[in-house]
Amino acid sequence: MKAWLLKDFGLDNLQLGETPTPQPRAGELLVKVGAVSLNFRDKAIVDGIYEPHKVPKPLIPVSDAAGTVVAVGEGVTRFNVGDRVNSHLYSRWLDGEPGPHEPDYCFGSPLPGGLAEYMIIHQDSAVAAPANMSDEEAATLPIAALTAWYSLVDFGQILPGQTALVQGTGGVSIFAVQIATALGAKVIATSSSDNNLHAVKRLGAVAGINYRTTPDWADEVLKLTAGKGVDLLLDVAGGSGINQSVAATKASGRIAQIGFLTGQTVALNLMPLIFRQTTLRGIAVAPRSSFERMNEFLNQHDIRPVIDQVYPFEQAREAYEHLAKGAFGKVVIKVG
User: Could you tell me which residue ranges the Enoyl reductase (ER) domain spans (predicted)?
Assistant: First the structure.
């Protein structure tokens, strides 16, 4: 089969080649990949800044895929040939709290990912793709949508009338605006682009803050919330901005620490965190059970993924370059 193979770190070392088509073993599905979507994790793996010691070479990258089951291994009962399915990043995290070794069983590293004509997904890990979505749309769900859902619902327990803040206008943040708005919450968005802030308001955000022109954006959040701060903040930036996130969140509020776009380490000011009694929770996607509940919600509220651009399979590198420059919503690669 054709596959993109990461032979060493760096985008120049991501090369289109051929590798044997995998065969499903007991309990496994062979999926003809229709589309994949890119996340910052995928870029960080290629760049060598995401658990580089765990990345096998060559690696078929990209965790988030949607496609059609074309063969099944012995004992498969959850899916049939012809069913459309999604991959699920943490392939062994099915329900409840995560176990200690979930990152060892992630697609796109260390397990082979979906940037190939075919991939193997265990039947227990696979999730039925929404019938009302194309493969390109469904491929955006496994990390971006599910991280937003888990942050807002399972962790954040956001309620109608409460306020959530989302950073930026990438995949997770756009889904968070759509889902939180459908849940009846008020959303404040930050971005460095006024055009993106106008666009995100059209998706339901009630206010937008340009953090370039308003570097002390936490002060603006307090003004917008009558001095209280937001109930829940989804932090995708990481880095030193976490201190502003604490300041922008209400006393006893919650921060979902999702990303590390501006840095993996930070000098955290503990006294504001302690005095405001803030809950800071690292979020690494969610279990399969949450994915299935989310799909029901997306269908019920007719929430459609926002896709910035779809690239053909042969232009995977260009898709990575687009992601690196920034995207409004999701960057997708059509495979099948």
Answer: 10-333
